Amino acid sequence: MKKTREMVLDILVEAGIDHVFGLPGGSTPFIFDALFDRQDKLKPVLARQEGAAACMADVYGRLTGKPGVVICQGPWAGSNAGFGIMEAYSAGSPMLIITDQSDWGNLGQYGVYQSCTGEYGAFDLAGIMRRITKYTCVANTAEEFIRGVQLGIKHATTGKPGPAAVIAKWNTVVSEFEPAAVRPKIYPLAGYLAVSPASITEEDADKIAAMIAESQKPVMICGRGIHISRAYAEVVELAELAGLPVATSYMGKSSIPETHELALGTTGNLGQKIANETITSADLILAVGTGLSPENNRMLAPEFINPEKQKLIHIDIEPLNAGFTLPVTLGATSDAKLALRAIIAALKKRGMKPCQPRVAELKKLKSDTKFFASAAELDSDAEPILPERVVKEVNKLADKNTMLVLDGGNNRMWFTKHFQTGHAGQFIAPGGVAAVGWCPPAALAAQLLCKDKRVIGISGDGGMVMGLHCLVSARQYNVPVTYLVLNNSCLGNVMDFMAPNRRVCAQYPAPELAAIAQGAGLKGVKVTRPSEIAPALKQALDGSEPTLLDIRVSDAPHFRLMGA
Fold this sequence. Notes:
Elements: E1 2-3, H1 4-14, E2 19-23, H2 28-36, E3 43-46, H3 50-64, E4 68-72, H4 74-77, H5 82-91, E5 95-100, H6 125-130, E6 135-139, H7 142-157, E7 163-168, H8 170-173, E8 176-177, H9 190-193, H10 202-214, E9 218-222, H11 224-229, H12 232-242, E10 246-248, E11 263-266, H13 273-281, E12 284-288, E13 311-316, E14 330-333, H14 336-349, H15 356-368, H16 387-397, E15 402-405, H17 410-418, E16 427-428, H18 439-449, E17 454-460, H19 461-466, H20 469-476, E18 482-487, H21 492-495, H22 513-519, E19 523-527, H23 530-542, E20 547-552
Parallel strand pairs: 2-3, 2-4, 4-5, 5-7, 6-7, 9-10, 9-12, 10-11, 12-13, 13-14, 15-16, 15-17, 17-18, 18-20, 19-20
Antiparallel strand pairs: 1-8
């Protein structure tokens, strides 16, 4: 006989997953017991709250392309963990949630406390999960538990990635079975995953190549799909082959290094003026791996992208996304990397040569407009420190080994607008639901996984207070993450929408975060002058211990970033 929970973990190993994130509770301690003997293959990471586990799993999925695994008790999987699951669902991050019904040994029909079977006297965990995941199943037997995990991995990684949940009854978690007697037969996971992703047709690739070759003012917009398919080299190759300017959505930022001569920066209200003007004046827009969502496109203002006057080519792994927000000239369902490779091949077959005048014109325009360096606030010595000055100092010190992880709130707006990425994949940010408090666990996971990088977690004081338990985890695992907190004594983004004389629940005394970090065993540094930012950040990045920089900034409204 074999323990069901052991086979479930063996499936994770078979899938190439090497970390799990969670918090034991309900019947899941039995799963953690099985983890004890597999720690050389599956590293368990204790999160101090289920929402943090889900955020960490989200980042694992983004960085590896494999499902980030969350293991926790049912009631908290459907509540606390929902914080990170919803981001993964909207952002397209592969995730697998393994949880239980907490029915305490088949007592689900008796209204036992914590039960989430959906029976009378219990809440419906499966119903909750089905609204925030791609796939949810309830496992009543050992066979269903094993098969559910296999299908969960398949759903999490197929098409547009996302979260999948497997909810097991208590008795199923602790069950044993004879594999040879199972019907239908349980096959190895590999056979279920041996499916090629959607790929553009040769005919559509030829059509797109022809339109690019004939266009006078083409532009490419890249979204998070570029990160998902790791199509960084293809973006640069296509851009250089066709002399094609490249803009990105907010979540597509760092699809191309923004130091590249053909990079335009991000689009929309938080974007660069040159990106927005290039898109508006383009005769052809090639959108790849982006949903062209309203927040990246001036809330779909017709004067920004006008499909009646511009040709719009839209490529996405999800067929419903192409032509979802705007009508298209040509829509194609494809993995971004495969689509770009096919278009590159078609252009080479046509003998495409870079449009050097277009490249030279863009280079001059970027120089004339001081690309990423036009804001006077970047050089300000004002106190409290202006947020833009913080971004400038991070820009100066960031190199190819530096990764930025942002949070929800105004901090992401300052850094989206003013931080110029120097290499592909340097920038990780929440944007599915963009919750405040996502950064502390996300940055922790990024540093845990990327030992060759130095991770800077950027948050406001509101987000850091929500994730203070992550400081304890950073010390526990001795992860040399650097938390950079823009401490302005307020919930800046929501306060910006309140009348100045009618602000409620948005301002408070500044939390002494450096002291709190020191109490958790980290290095905590309070920064109050612009001249102190660079030495404090350099020392943190050069060091080998987790550090929090409590930078006192002004409560400048994010609205001054708009309108570019």
